Amino acid sequence: MLIRPPNDIQPSEITPRSIFRARRRFMRDTAGIAGAAMLGGGLSLLGARRAAALASDPDATGEKLEGVVESAWRTDEELTSYSYITSYNNFYEFGTDKRDPARHAGGFNPQPWKVEVSGECAKPGAYDYDDIVKPHQLEERIYRLRCVEAWSMVVPWIGIPLGDVLARFEPTSKAKYVAFRTVFRPEEMRGQTRAILDWPYVEGLRIDEAMHPLTLLTVGLYGEVLPNQNGAPIRLVVPWKYGFKSIKSIVSIEFTEGEPPTTWNLSAPREYGFYSNVNPQVDHPRWSQKRERRIGELFKRDTLMFNGYADEVASLYAGMDLKANY
Amino acid sequence: MKFDKRVAVAKTGIFAAALVPFAALVVNAFTGGLGANPVEAITHTTGEWTLRLLIVTLAITPLRHLTGRVWLTRLRRMIGLFAFFYLMLHFATYAVLDASLDLSYIVEDVADRLYITVGFAAFVMLVPLAATSTNAMVRRLGPVRWRRLHRLVYAAAVGGALHFLWLVRADLLEPLIYAGVLAALLAARLPPAVKWMQNRRSKIAAARSAAPAS
Predict the structure, then answer these.
(1) How confident is the model at residue A46 (pLDDT cuts 50, 70, 90)?
(2) Is-contact B80 B57, C-beta < 8 A?
(3) Residue A266 · residue A198 · CB < 8 Å
(4) What is the pLDDT of residues A115-127, one digit of tens each?
(5) Which residue has the higher pLDDT, A6 or A213?
(6) Scanning every residue of chain B, which has its alpha carbon at the shortest distance from the alpha carbon of A286?
(7) Residues A112, A220 contacting (CB under 8 angstroms)
(8) CB A73: neighbour CB atoms within 10 A?
(9) Pick from A9-13, A190-194, A245-249, B152-156: least confident
């Protein structure tokens, strides 16, 4: 009888569940798109069909983004409307009321835009918006967004995987974390004239979180250029973490060896940790995180572990005490 | 006669004015004016009006000392009851729409979350005040016991101000304004403050009577 030794499969040969699930979804979805394209009369229609399949909203009347493709990363939950996404959000740089960003972001200039890349990488420097974004294929990703204040949305973001962008800067082996910084322009961002938080806003991710395929460097939503109030021109979207981790209007990306400071953690260390993963089992010290109100719904719904992305990201935190590392 | 008429006019005006925020909520609720998160808008609006109206009731005694207008006191019950009306809407919104009437959820919130603990305590303290607001209840309790019971409003107002202060994420300015006004109104009840206000009033009255008639 032949007994297979238990160790003949190298760990590197095993495809993580998150990847093969994404691959399966990708194959299923692309098969559907290809089938539709053939029915529609050939390859020439492919681009048009893809564009037509992107999320749309009659209120989205801004500048359209060209050449966007659908992504396999999409929830089929009902989308939050364009008007709610763009009129109700936290962006303290424009004021602390959730209607303030829409009211006061009109005078903000998102172009021209430069991002300073620095720290533990082979290609630091000042990069223009186009240098960052243009080499990559824009894709639409429909993600759940869970705010630490216990409300949530479903948003059709447009962006590029952050990991692909970071890889071009060739991080060194010392790059254990990535630190991000929001622009500081008190003359255009009235919230920065008051010391509510320690401006400029800073955030950070562990390098494996930053390289994770779900982490999106975002430049648009609902098929359009990102509105000022939602973090134009470039922001992060990290869907398994509370919204404040998804830093907006980024002007600096720095590869660091140590854990970088983060603004909300500096403001209230007991309430906001470095990780800030969505976790219904770890309450905010002052309020419950077990449930959330989905914008557009009357009653609260249960909050999901890692905001419903546990299959994809739970392995990042294997063996970690998530109560201590909140 | 003139005294009663003035009170009646003031009460009618206050009754109408105190219903304006409620009417605005109802209209906005049916026209989409409450925005993306209507439940949050209702919770915040009703909570803010509870605190504002409580503060108005606490402003009446200092105002009486300053002006000598005793009739102001007769407006207080109605304003207090409107504060309680908004508080009931506030609590009902929380219990039904936030907690889905899940008792264990509410108990956990009240036990574990300090801002809900103080807010709920303030609510509980104001229930007997609303219940003993009728003339019959004032008679039954007797003025001394009634007044002693209604001192609970100080604790309830402090609870309400802390409830607001402790739920804010970073910008404390607005809750601190409420807390500051409340602190000033409570300080105005200390004997030296009362004495100062009464002296000021008699000085003004004396100056007025000494002035030549034009």
Answers:
(1) very low
(2) yes
(3) yes
(4) 999 999 999 999 9
(5) A213
(6) B113
(7) no
(8) 22
(9) A9-13
Q: How far is CA A112 from CA A129, A131, A157, B203, in A?
A: 7, 12, 21, 67
Nearest chain B CA: its distance from A185 CA (Å): 19
Q: Between B208 and A65, whose confidence is greater? A: A65
Residue of A nearest to B42 (CA): A298
Q: Compute the distance between CA of residue A139 and CA of residue A221 in angstroms, rounded to an integer.
A: 10
Contact check, Cβ <8 Å, B40/A283: no
Bridge partners (DSSP) of residue A302 are A291
pLDDT of residue B203: 87
- Residue B114: list chain A partners with CB under 8 A: 286
- Residue A300's DSSP bridge partners are none
CB A272 within 8 A of CB A206: no
Distance CA B26, CA B20 (A): 10
Please indicate whether, in this complex, the C-beta atoms of A286 and B167 are within 8 angstroms of each other. yes
pLDDT, one tens digit per residue, over A137-159 is: 999 999 999 999 999 999 999 99
Residue B171 in contact with residue B162, Cβ under 8 Å?
Answer: no
| Structure token digits, residue B138 | 């004032």
Report CB contact under 8 Å: A88, B109: no
Residue to substitute from B113, B114, B169, interface A, most A β-carbons within 10 A: B169
Residue of B nearest to A81 (CA): B36
Residue A130 makes CB contacts below 8 A (sequence gap 6+) with none
Give pLDDT, residue B211.
72
Q: ω into residue A285 within 30 of 0, thus cis?
A: no
Return the sign of the alpha-carbon dihedral for residues A119, A121, A125, A130: negative
Angle value at C-alpha A13, between A9 and A18, nearest 5 degrees: 125
Among the listed residues A166, A165, A160, A164, the one whose alpha carbon sits nearest the alpha carbon of residue A120: A166
At which residue do the structure tokens 């008792």 appear? B103
Q: At what angle do helices B173-187 and B152-165 cross, to 10 degrees?
A: 160
> Which residues of B are less than 8 Å from A293 in CB distance?
37, 39-40, 98
Q: Are the C-beta atoms of residues A163 and A211 closer than 8 Å to each other?
A: yes
pTM of this structure: 0.84
Torsion sign (Cα): A276, A282, A285, A289: positive
Q: Residue A2: is its pLDDT beyond 80? A: no
Neighboring chain B residues of A83 at a CB cutoff of 8 Å? 36
Tell me the backbone φ, ψ of residue B155, rounded to 5 degrees: -65, -40
Q: Which of B36, B108, B166 sits opposite A84 (nearest CB)?
A: B36
List phi, psi (to 5°) of B78: -65, -40
> Which helix H or strand E contains A28, and what residues bound it?
helix A17-39
